[in-house]
Amino acid sequence: MNQNKKHLYHLVDESPWPLIVSMGALFFTLFIVFFTMRLDYSLMLVYLNLIMILLMMYSWWKDVVIEATFQGKHTLVVKRSIWLGFILFMLSEAMLFFSFFWGYFHYSLTIVYEIGYYWPGIDVEPVKSYRLPLINTMLLILSGITLTVAHKSILIGDIINTKVRLMLTIILGLLFEMLQVMEYSLTPFNINDLVFGNIFYFLTGLHGLHVFIGIIFLIICFIRLQKGQLLRESHTGFEFAIWYWHFVDLVWIILFFIVYWW
């Protein structure tokens, strides 16, 4: 059927992954709500569901890689549609963070009786911006630089330096996650401490989740580089990983100045 088609578009085969991943994301959200309600075994359900989502993502991405790299079904027209879809996905992510920032400004600028006419709240001591948050900011900015340099390396066909700089970016991302976990262990308030604690953990935790996803994205690109699947002429997946990582960097910089410094 593909040999007789008269167009440049890719008619995808039937796949169960969109529906399964959507259901997995739905249950993941429900289990997060259960966790905030302190229900028994809720944290275990979150971890199990996260593992299942990662397995489903692996299976789905593997099918896409096979279609693009080995079957050659991703023509320039198909790539343009994928770029548009990813841009719309990034816009939806931006609106997600915008909603949380909106809530933060709403409660911080309009002090009401429910939070004691005081922001961030009585007996709530904010995290010092010049300690771990500042170090994490430097790590993410540096990781954005190394990833940009890695992109320039693959554009000139220097695969070896691309691998080195990409691995350095992954290490910086892992250091960021480790320091954020350390910060949570030292934070003098928790998610149940008034509105500030709730928004703080949701914003920083949501960003940390995006960094984790970005690290997985970059690791997959590194594996594909090792297998020779990403070249100067064709590395769309790597470009998407770069876009995603720079988006995560930008969100953190905004978050740092608003939540930590301001």
Model description:
This protein is mainly α and 262 residues long. The chain has 7 helices and no strands. It is globular, with a radius of gyration of 21 Å.
SSE diagram, text form:
Layout: H1 17-36, H2 42-70, H3 76-109, H4 132-155, H5 159-186, H6 194-226, H7 236-261
How much strand? under 5%
Radius of gyration: 21 Å
Task: Find the CATH topology of the largest domain.
Answer: Four Helix Bundle (Hemerythrin (Met), subunit A)
Going by CATH, the homologous superfamily of the largest domain would be: Cytochrome c oxidase, subunit III, four-helix bundle
CATH class assignment of the largest domain: Mainly Alpha
Give the helix level as a range of percent.
over 70%
- Mean pLDDT equals 85
Q: Ends: how far apart?
A: 60 Å
How many β strands by DSSP?
A: 0
Q: State the low-pLDDT regions, or none.
A: none
Spell out the key features of this protein:
2 domains; 7 helices; 74% helix; globular; mainly alpha; Helix Hairpins; single chain; 262 residues; Four Helix Bundle (Hemerythrin (Met), subunit A)
Structure summarized in a few sentences:
By secondary structure, the chain is an all-alpha fold. The protein has helices at residues 17-36, 42-70, 76-109, 132-155, 159-186, 194-226, 236-261.
